[in-house]
Amino acid sequence: MLRFDEFAVALGGRTLVRLDGTVAAGKVLAVMGPSGAGKSSLLKAVAGLIGPPFVVSGRVLVGEEDITRLPVEARGVGLMFQDALLFPHMSVVGNVMFAVPRRVARSRGARREVAMGHLGRVAMAHLAEADPATLSGGERSRVALARTLAGAPRVLLLDEPFAALDQALKARTRDIVFRLAAEDGLPVVMVSHDPADAEAARAQVVEIRPCQEGEGS
Ligand SMILES: Nc1ncnc2c1ncn2[C@@H]1O[C@H](COP(=O)(O)OP(=O)(O)OP(=O)(O)O)[C@@H](O)[C@H]1O
């Protein structure tokens, strides 16, 4: 379970986002709101990827553990963006192997086996040796998902990961993402502009609105 306890992100003395509540294992919290409201900043704050000029307060807990001030690599947070950001100089399986933590598999052979398992889950094992540059958008997204899950996250954060895909591909890709997140018992926080994404995930929705000057703390 993921829990927000008066978790807030402020910029220039103004609160951009403030969040309280829980996201259960396998469930999705959809964060919606206008451009510039602070949705991406919220995800980055959970992942530990922002510093000044942003100020983070309150707590984020995964299970009973307060991760708010842990280093990025100790948080167990998997993050997926609109751009799959695959490493161009590695094969598909190389990209996924790179994410497998040493505590999960030490030898190269063992990491490859774990990576192939994740590629199988996203129906991409047959393209394990492919060059990422030759993949379609949907395939790239599935490899990005395999790579994220290979990192053995405890929480999944999605920053408009389906926005670049056409409607049919979008529906298929997001179904895989939500199914695997549920299988792995991962709480998901998803930033999206598309209400259909939230509907498909049967998500709890939180609307973020830009703070006015003088509002917040
Ligand atoms: N590095 C930075 N330094 C200062 N301000 C920033 C920085 N990055 C973002 N901002 C500002 O923080 C605010 C929130 O940005 P953020 O990207 O979180 O919004 P968003 O809701 O995700 O927008 P979008 O839907 O367009 O992606 C915006 O006003 C933006 O201009």
Radius of gyration, Cα only, in angstroms?
17 Å
State the strand order across the main sheet. 6-7-8-3-9
Question: Roughly how much helix do the residues carry, as a percent range?
Answer: 25-40%
- Order of SSEs, N→C? EEEHEEEHHHEHEHE
User: Beta-strand level of the residues, as a percent range?
Assistant: 15-25%
* Mean pLDDT over all positions: 93
Ligand roster: adenosine-5'-triphosphate
Molecular shape: globular
Count, helices: 6
Largest sheet: 5 strands, parallel
Low-confidence stretches: 212-217
Task: Give the CA-CA distance, first to last residue.
Answer: 28 Å
Please give the number of β-strands.
9
Q: Pairing-aware structural class of the strands and helices?
A: alpha/beta
Family: Belongs to the ABC transporter superfamily.
Keywords: ATP-binding, Nucleotide-binding, Transport
GO molecular function: ATP binding; ATP hydrolysis activity
Protein name: ATP-binding cassette domain-containing protein
Description:
This protein has 217 residues and is an alpha/beta fold. The chain has six helices and nine strands, in the order βββαβββαααβαβαβ. α2 packs parallel to α4. The C terminus is likely disordered. Bound molecules: adenosine-5'-triphosphate. The site of adenosine-5'-triphosphate (ATP) has 10 residues, from α1.
